[in-house]
Amino acid sequence: MPDRRTSLLIADEEDINQRLTEERARLRREAGLAGPRHFQRPRERAFSAEERDNVTILFGGLTWKHEELIKAVFLGNGYKCEMVPVPNVAAFQLGKEYGNNGQCNPTYFTVGNLVQYLQGLEAKGIPRQQILDNYVFFTAGSCGPCRFGMYEAEYRFALQNAGFDGFRVLLFQQNDGIKAASGEPGLKFTVDFGIGMLNALNLGDVMNDLIYQIRPYEVNKGESDRVFPEAMDGLCDTLRNRHVGDLMDRLPPWAGRLLMKKRAVKSWTCALAKVKEHLYGKEYLDSIDACREKLNSIEVDRLRVKPIVKITGEFWAQITEGDGNFHMFEFLEREGAQVLVEPIATWVAYMLHQVQLNGADRKAIDAPYRNPKWFEFGKRFKNEAKYRSKWAGLAAGETMWTYFYHRIADRLGGITHHLVPQAELARLANPFYHQLTRGGEGHLEVGKNVYYTINHLCHMVLALKPFGCMPSSQSDGVQSAVINRYKDMVFLPIETSGEGEVNAHSRVQMALGEAKAKAKLEFEAALKSTGKRLEDIKGYVADHPELRRPFYHVPHRPGIAGTAAQFILHVSDRMDGKVKAAA
Ligand code: SF4
Asked: Which of 230, 248, 358, 558 has the fewest CB atoms below 10 angstroms from its CB?
């Protein structure tokens, strides 16, 4: 029992503490700090299913090929939708005006682009309230760690500053799939929508790759730019208009009745039947074949010696075809190069692979039983089984994703590059950049640089990295060590921003000079090895029209990057009767 003196002391201390608490609370109240104020994502008006007929979904940020196909899927699924145009410098300036300071370049371009589009609608006479009610923006989101995690907040902030407070932004979360900011059912992730988008992304990637492989060699200038949109129209029509019916409507009544008894079996069977129809349906495959035939009508001359420039860099900067990367692809083609673009599919495969790698690192943390003893075999087995099943699911996902991409690439002519295995990119990057260092493209810039150089798949690697990009600045530092290791590498990083186009083009021109010399030497060595005169090879090509078609298959020889060098070696073999004419 405490004595009287101690209890008085405790009473005094309690009194002091109480007075301190009261005084602290008074000061916090006065300073307006009463109660913790945690950040809350602003609640938005829901985009409801009833609004679907009136609300237009806006989206953008990819190439016109991807966007046309994505639009077709939206329309085919009953949504109204419009593409915001490719961002220009004026959009960049608006992004700076209405956005936060110190953002990366793509943030300014894309955020400003949306503001610019909405201002354009207003200028056409659509009242502001009508814009808020009848339009929503659909974009990708992420939890970071780079500024990509802040995009959603940046859109809201800039829209608010520009007077469009309350404009709705729907998020396609990098990690969680489609999840509108406020969970509304207006945009529903159905099988038709999901598989339609998968087809749109894959077709968009392959068509994008194809145009950069064919246009530099077209015989009739402007033919590719005329034929490609026509071919795209056919694909878009199919994605938009084809009806993928419900399995239940096609089944005989007895089978339907049988399935109805088991609801879970019925919904899985119907979903799988739809997936199959979307991926393997005759109408879909016929439209791909028709597209291929159309593109194959473009006459090409593969004897033009051109350096191949592999594009890497930050996700947006390496995709956009406008001011955001100084119209770099157009510039490179004008300067006589062949551009090797990067498909979006690589980034999706990267995301899947990262989850797999993280899972391996978190194995002990995510295990249902922490630190089981050596003799607790049941617990140890369950821990292992949980990890293995997750790993197998992710590995299967990556394999299937790669398979579906390659399937489209092969059906659309088979001349586009296959996806580089993620494990290989991680392995090559590892001595310089750890694969679990996340943010932006992570280790991919380094891995691709090494992969395309050591496998002789290009003459130069051009990394497009936006001004203010956190992960790109890191990998830029690392690339100097990479260049030191691979002495014959021609690598140029270009920082893209809203200004400085002339300076960037001039730097590219200088590096391109080196790449051109490399391509020329390679071609001359290849020609010499054939023992033939160039005129004789040209004459043979002139007599064989199939050699002037873009989808004529020229087998790839390891160690040679140039299209012209590969081509003369093959033609020479044909002239010598070493190989039969390819189809
Ligand atoms: S990767 Fe770089 S440019 Fe892209 S969002 Fe992140 S910080 Fe910005």
From this structure: 558
